Amino acid sequence: MGKLAPRSAFAGLLHSAGPSAAPGVLVREETGLGLATVFARAPYFPRLVQSAYGIIPPETSQVVSNGAVAFIGTGPGKWLALSRNGAAGWRDELATALGVTGSVIDQSDGFGVLRVSGEKVRATFEKGFPVDLHPSVFKPRSVAVTLVAHIGVTLWQIDDAPTYELAIARSFAGSFAHWLTSSAAEFGLRVEV
Amino acid sequence: MRIDCPFCGSREIVEFSYLGDAGVQRPAPDAGSVFTDYVYLRDNVAGRHREYWYHGSGCHSWLVVERDTRSHEIFSVDYAHRETVR
Amino acid sequence: MSGRRLASGGLINRAAPVRFAFDGRDFAGFAGDTVASALLANGVGLVGRSFKYHRPRGVFSAGPEEPNALVELRNGTRREPNTKATTAELFAGLVARSQNRWPSLAFDVLAINQLASPIFVAGFYYKTFMWPAVLWEKLYEPLIRRAAGLGKASVETDPDSYEKATAFCDVLVIGSGPAGLMAALTAGRAGARVIVAEEDFPLGGRLLAETYEIDGMPGAAWTAGVEAELRALPNVRIMRRTVVFGVYDGGTYGALERVSDHLAVPPPHQPRQRLWKLVAKRTVLAAGAIERPVVFGGNDRPGVMLASAVRSYANRFGVAAGERIAVFTTGDDGWRTAGDLLAQGVTVAAVIDPRTEVAPAVRALAGGAEVYLGAMVRDAHGAHGLRRIDVVRADGSSVSIAADVLAVSGGWNPTASLATHHGARTEWSDTKLAFLPGKTPPGLAVAGAAAGNFTTAEALADGVRLGNEAAVALGFTATSIAAIRTSDESFAVAPLFHVAAARTKAFVDLQNDVTVKDIALAEREGFRSVEHLKRYTTLGMATDQGKTSNVNGLAIMAELTGRSIPETGSTRSRPPHVPVAIGAFAGLHKGLDFKPTRLPASHGWAVARGAVFVETGQWLRAQWYPQPGETDWLTSVTREVKAVRGGAGICDVSTLGKIALEGPDVGAFLDRVYANMFSTLPVGRARYGLMLREDGIVMDDGTTARLADERFVMSTTTINAGKVMQHLEFCHQVLWPELDLDMVSVTEQWAQFAVAGPSSRQLLQTLFGPGVDLSDAAVPYMAARELQLDSIPARLFRLSFSGELAYEIAVPARFGAALAGALVTAGAGLGVVPYGTEALGVMRVEKGHVAGNELNGTSTAGDLGLGRMLSSKKDFIGRTMAARPGLVDPARPALVGLRPVDRAQRLRAGAHFLARDAKAEAANDAGYMTSVVFSPELGHWIGLGLLANGPQRHGEIIRAYDALRGEDIAVEVVPPVHVDPEGVRLRG
């Protein structure tokens, strides 16, 4: 048998829309990420994370990153652990590092991740996100797990630009892309590769 | 209605599911007819009421919310497991 | 009535003429006009016919309270009925039509309804159309709908889009008159995040319609200065054309932004309207007030208008509403209409005031016009437009005055309905002669005219005070605002709600054609409560919700019953405060976007193979895969089933819920949530599990596999995946937090395919290659394995839903589409077919497996033939209650198989079971057919059903009675497993 060819969650689903001259919103699918749901099961869990990755998992709805690895707080004692070094081996690497102090469940294929930025990103997100994204409230490192157009979304802010990343359950990718395209079209949406 | 989830912050009611009276305690398996009360018998409180809510579209926490059923004023929100341990 | 454009003045742009059409005639207006102001400027006084009596009606107001001037706007798919001409902005090419007239506005055949007015009295629906009931649908309702009613909706699909959005702020300011502007400015200067929502297209509220000066500037100029400062503040957001229509819990406000209603067609990618949820920590309601008319005879004649509206048209739109305008006012404010008209050079025919004395400064506003003090307008005359009014003096003498417009003022009603949402009530003030807000919704304060503080100075001061209070409450520092110089106009007013001496029909509610006589009749018939009065007479209903009629109606009822107005009470105001299009509530979610669609990884692959899809909850699943030449579903499904049972088939089962459970206590946990035992499940094995609700009814079923000592994966039905997750988290977090385990859904992580049929092992062997041992010894029935497929982690389960030798194989979802292709390739020589949910269903019914149709929320494990799965060695959810006598009664409907006695007959799901000789009535109902399929294996229809005493009745002939289809056939009761009852094949 030949190798099975992978297909990313948003493959073929993102399309530029609206005015193209100076697009207000830029979107790009982040592929090749490792994702895992991690639960803390013992008090020394944070220390093991720190010794492995140099970061302490946040206890609130925040994201902490060392550049390559990020712990995104999605619930009490629960994180979405993200690696920019790819999905292969990510679950096993984490499970080895954490031992019995944590549960690690592979989700690298469970979500599609989008990176969204641009001058009109907040104006676009207002049309779906029921959470306050004003810069005085939602800042770089803030995280929200919420519903956008009836679709579950995990959102975290990367920088002040503002740049955001969003994780959307894979099966909803088409519906989410439709919401994003419809909502950003008036400002111009450009899909970056 | 908005509920101030202890993990996620203030969120719209659409993110939550309702279960009802948080005052009931699951009886021992051999408790007999007490089980019927546990499953079916609820007070229809007009006023302050402690009730279970589930933040299914957020952090997946089960919460105990103390709410005035007449005005929807919310007095407190806490994790249900913390209430159980108490 | 012959209005005209004044030579100068107004806030319209006279350099920008705008062409439009009304009832097929072309007119010109200016940018800044409304449809109403442009019609008045063109001398059009008659704009519609009334609801019941088809009486001619004209423009009554200059705002959202308009009861009369409702028009159909636009053509074709964009036709919108009941649009208020008084708020619709004029745009080039606008097309409007009058409503409720036939054949023409000037000559309306149904105006004959007036002659039949005795039958259109209060409660006429209830009285006239009671009997016989059979005539309702065929005769009464069509008749009423033709005779009464408002405009006609377009029946075509709305071509425009709608959006929904959410915005957050510290302080929401509703309205942008003097109070709103100052509240926004003070809160904004203090640093609070402010949203100003203004229903109109410019900011300013009444300031645009009055001639008062603020800080030495005309109101519009002063407004422009404040607006400029607000726009410069980054923490202030101004939302024009946005009406707040409801107050909801937790500081949430519903608002509608009319994004493109003022344009012929929405710009590209822009919605027509946007529905907002505004979430505010504090709110200042500064929605102003609506003038109250006085009720007298013929007060619905075109040309009878609110005095403030006449002022609005003169000052804001540069329009004289008529050539000879009389003013009938019970308070000082109405005199200002006379003053403003005289200043514009318009003839004032007379000023009539029931008070015998007015202050000299007020009297002076009438200039040289005739003044009648201690007098009232008794009746107005003129068929298609006002021609004269009868004025009656205190001594009973009367005089007839020629006028084409009568400006009426009976005082002001605060627009406080938003302050009464959330269960609050207004309170009557005898000094202000108005209902004022009492207790308000949490976080909401009322400023200016909306609070009954009608003067500009009071409004400005209220705005500053409440803007600061809101800011300070949120931790900001109060800002001081220099005193603002303004007039301190008088609002003294006398109580007069209706003129009892009226000789002609006197209308309380213009929109619903409710007269004083209707209220008197309601009173005589006992409908004295205000809520009864409203429903019985329809007073205060429909698009204007009685904004110009409610208080007069109450006052008249109070008078009739000898009670005071507060004793009479007021109707409760509920959201929405103004009509909101359903399309706006739907937003993006219409048609195929009604709800999100979930697609499995193989969806594109299935599309390419021509699959027909079915909705399963939010999922789209392949239902069958028609081959060329196959024209009906049964042919395709039968072929798929035969192919699976004869060789191999693959089916995407990724949509089933998958929950990962990890931790030392998973086994103990599963023992408590499943009815059967799981702690004893060996690593590498899967087991079928049955989950009950606490009341003893079956909740869900599925298989759970133990992948490692502390690592399990559970499967649920597609439909119940979310519900089971919620239930398990309740059990863990609330019931047994001491158990050490974690759980998370992995439904999305794995693409999973059933590979079924006698050749399935061979197919998988080809896929995995010879290095993987798939023998029965290595992968026995109910085995669960983690292995690698081309260095991709994969899972292999030996499970069978079809009764054949079968497996389920799972890979990370990114490889799902490729795996589907690879499975077909691997099975090429084995006759492999992809099969859909229909074939899956056929095979499960053939095997007697229960599914959603049988797990119907009322069936017990015993009912489903699974009673022996209930473990007696442990406690579990539902155990105690499942043992209740009613749930173990052998007479309960229980699972059986069914076959038609005449094998050529078709079975119908939903058919009810009857004993052979029983009459077809509910008392004899013995259960029903839950699932039916055509069995390719047996060559006839078979079914599953829940039958009373079912397991004891195998071999009996009963009837399956389908009243909906008129079928009544004999069926044989058989064991539920129709095919391979010994289960030989699945162990193949």
Give the overall pLDDT of chain B as a whole number.
92
Report the structural category of chain C: alpha+beta
How many domains of chain B, as an integer?
A: 1
> What is the correct CATH architecture of chain B?
2-Layer Sandwich
Number of strands of chain C: 51
Strand order of the largest sheet of chain B: 3-4-5-6
CATH class of the largest domain in chain C: Alpha Beta
Terminal Cα span of chain C: 94 Å
The number of strands of chain B is: 6
CATH homologous superfamily descriptor of the largest domain in chain C: FAD/NAD(P)-binding domain
CATH homologous group name of chain B: Folate-binding superfamily
> What would you call the shape of chain C?
elongated
Count of separate DSSP helical elements of chain C: 23
* Rg over C-alpha atoms of chain B, rounded to the nearest angstrom: 14 Å
Fraction in helix of chain C: 10-25%
**SSE run of chain B:** EEEHEEEH
Strand content of chain B: 35-45%
Task: Describe the fold and architecture.
The complex is a heterotrimer of chains A (193), B (86) and C (988). By secondary structure, chain A is α+β, with helices and mostly antiparallel strands. Chain A contains four helices and eleven strands; from the N terminus they run ββαβββαββαβββαβ. In chain B, the strands form two sheets. In chain B, strands 3-4-5-6 form a four-stranded antiparallel sheet. In chain B, strands 1-2 form a two-stranded antiparallel ribbon. By secondary structure, chain B is of the alpha+beta class. Chain B has a single domain (2-85), classed as Folate-binding superfamily (Folate-binding fold). Chain B has helices spanning 34-40, 80-85; strands spanning 2-5, 9-12, 17-21, 48-54, 62-68, 74-79. The mean pLDDT of chain B is 92. With 988 residues, chain C is an alpha+beta fold. In chain C, the strands form 14 sheets. In chain C, strands 9, 10, 13, 14, 15, 16 and 30 form a seven-stranded mixed sheet that branches. A six-stranded mixed sheet of chain C has the order 42-43-44-41-35-45. Chain C has a six-stranded antiparallel sheet with strand order 47-50-51-46-49-48, covered by helices on one side. In chain C, helix 6 packs parallel to helix 7 (332-343), helix 10 crosses helix 12 (550-561) and helix 16 crosses helix 21 (837-846). The chains are: A alpha+beta (193), B alpha+beta (86), C alpha+beta (988). At the A-C interface, strand 6 and helix 4 of A face strand 9 and helix 20 of C.
